C-alpha cells in the first residue's frame, strides 16, 4: 500500500518537507528586512525604515501561517534558525535591490511548493498555497516599483521619502483571505 498524500509513518511528503524549509525562508526574510530597516533608520530615512520594519512583521506572519498549517496537518514542527543575513550595504539602491531579489527568490520557492503539491495530489496543500502565490505577485511588484522610484529619484532621498510617505502607507486592515497564524498575527 502506498500513500502519496501528506505525512505517513514512513516520513514526510516532499510538500511538507518543503513547507518546513519555507518556515526558515520566511524567518530569514523577516530578519533580512529588519537589517534593511535598521540601515535606513540609522541614516534618518524614517519612511523607508517604516516600510521595511512593517515588511519584516509580515514575513514573520507568513512563517507563522505555515506553522499553523503544519500543526493542523499533524506535521511535527521544528522552529529553524534563520539563514544568513546581509548587513553591509553601500547605497539605498543596494538595499531595495536586495529586497527585490529576495522576493523573487521566495516566489520561486512557492512555485516549487506548488509543483510538489500537484505532483503529490495534495489538494489541501495546493489550496493553502494560493494566497501566498498572490501575495508574492504583490510583494515583487511593490519592491520592483520602489526600485524604479529609487532610480528615478537619482539620489534625491527627500523625493524618495516623499514618495514612500505618500504611496506606501501601512495597510492595517490585514489581507483578505489570509491564512491564520499560529498565535497572534503582528503584521
Ligand atoms: Fe513572505
Ligand atoms: Fe515577502
Structure characteristics:
Ferritin-like_SF; metal-binding; binds fe (ii) ion; 187 residues; Ferritin-like; iron; oxidoreductase; 5 helices; Ferritin
Portion in beta strands: under 5%
Query: What's the tally of helices?
Result: 5
For this structure, the quaternary state is single chain
| Poorly predicted segments | none
| Count of separate structural domains | 1
Number of strands: 0
User: What is the 3D form?
Assistant: elongated
Summing up helix and strand content along with how strands pair, one would put the structural category as mainly alpha
Mean pLDDT reading: 94
* Gyration radius, rounded: 18 Å
InterPro entries: Ferritin, Ferritin-like, Ferritin-like_diiron, Ferritin-like_SF, Ferritin_DPS_dom, Ferritin_prok
Protein name: Ferritin
Domain Ferritin-like diiron: 9-154
GO cellular component, one term: cytosol
Description of the molecule:
With 187 residues, the protein is mainly α. The chain has a single domain (14-80, 87-167), classed as Ferritin (Up-down Bundle). The protein has five helices and no strands. Helix 1 (14-42) packs antiparallel against helix 3 and helix 3 (92-119) runs antiparallel to helix 4 (123-153). The longest helix has 31 residues, at 123-153. The radius of gyration is 18 Å and the shape is elongated. The N and C termini lie far apart (44 Å). Bound molecules: fe (ii) ion (2 copies). One fe (ii) ion binds at residues 26, 29, 59, 62, 106.
Quick synopsis:
With 187 residues, the protein is an all-alpha fold.
Q: How are the secondary structure elements laid out?
A:
Blueprint: H1 14-42, H2 46-72, H3 92-119, H4 123-153, H5 157-167
Bound molecules: fe (ii) ion (FE2) (2 copies).
Binding site for Fe cation: 26, 59, 62, 103, 136
Protein name: Ferritin
GO molecular function, one term: ferroxidase activity
Amino acid at each position: 500500500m502506498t500513500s502519496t498524500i501528506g505525512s505517513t509513518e514512513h516520513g514526510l511528503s516532499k510538500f511538507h518537507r518543503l513547507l518546513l524549509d519555507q518556515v526558515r525562508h520566511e524567518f530569514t526574510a523577516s530578519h533580512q528586512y529588519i537589517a534593511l530597516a535598521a540601515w535606513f533608520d540609522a541614516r534618518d530615512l524614517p519612511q523607508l525604515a517604516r516600510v521595511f520594519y512593517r515588511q519584516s512583521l509580515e514575513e514573520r506572519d507568513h512563517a507563522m501561517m505555515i506553522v499553523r498549517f503544519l500543526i493542523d496537518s499533524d506535521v511535527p514542527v521544528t522552529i529553524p534558525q534563520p539563514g544568513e543575513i546581509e548587513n553591509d550595504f553601500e547605497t539605498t539602491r543596494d538595499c531595495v535591490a536586495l529586497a527585490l531579489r529576495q522576493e523573487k527568490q521566495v516566489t520561486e520557492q512557492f512555485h516549487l511548493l506548488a509543483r510538489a503539491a500537484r505532483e503529490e495530489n495534495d489538494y489541501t496543500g495546493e489550496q493553502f498555497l494560493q494566497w501566498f502565490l498572490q501575495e508574492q505577485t504583490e510583494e515583487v511588484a511593490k519592491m520592483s516599483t520602489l526600485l524604479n522610484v529609487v532610480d528615478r529619484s537619482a539620489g534625491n532621498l527627500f523625493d524618495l521619502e516623499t514618495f514612500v510617505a505618500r504611496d506606501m502607507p501601512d495597510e492595517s486592515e490585514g489581507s483578505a483571505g489570509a491564512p491564520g497564524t499560529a498565535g497572534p498575527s503582528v503584521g
